[in-house]
Amino acid sequence: MQFSIKRVNAILMKDWKDLLKNSYIIFTLxxxxxxxxxxxxxxxxxxxxxxMPISLAxxxxxxxxxxxxxxxxxxxxxxxxxxxxxATTTEILIGKSALSALMTILVIIGSILFSDxxxxxxxxxALSILFGLIIYIAIGTxxxxxxxxxxxxxxxxxxxxVVFGMxxxxxxxxxxxxxxxxxSYLPNEQLDAIWTGLxxxxxxxxxFLILLVWIVVILALTFIIYGKRRFDN
Length: 233
What we know:
Elements (H helix, E strand, L loop, with lengths): L4 H16 L2 H19 L10 H24 L3 H5 L5 H27 L6 H25 L3 H16 L1 H5 L5 H7 L3 H14 L4 H28 L1
């Protein structure tokens, strides 16, 4: 079966209409923007602190919103019909991820403007955002597939928000070297290392390779879990 842009677009349009009716999601998307505006107001646009809204945007707009949209399909019993439709697994996953990706990019752009963040090496910065998008949206898809309701995604996703969104703060209160070493390989830590490295003119290829490993593993998990939900539901 050939890949169909029309089927992907149909899924995207349906999600867009659902988004306009969901004030919870729209309010959630505003959180990184509010943080960015505050950082811009206090004049911290040149510090590492300025990257926090970008990381938060990836977690909230990428993972949380994606999880909520997938779980909402399950809650309304429409995901099962979508899985049994002529659309392929790839078409469905891309279609269900397109709106989250678009919203995340818009929130990141807004966060950069509000916080006066100086983007280092725009091509490599954009590539890091792309890698982050793929990872976090895949995580969101997994959370949505594992949750039974939209409310449940908030409970299941809270550890993701804490670890991936506030990892830098958590590291300051952890003394165990082994745990700190493991946390250093998390996507948010690799993204922060890339942005800091680009600012300082340091090499970031190793960080990109680690993110690439994350992409391969997380996408494989997404397809496996999706396949199990397709036949087990």
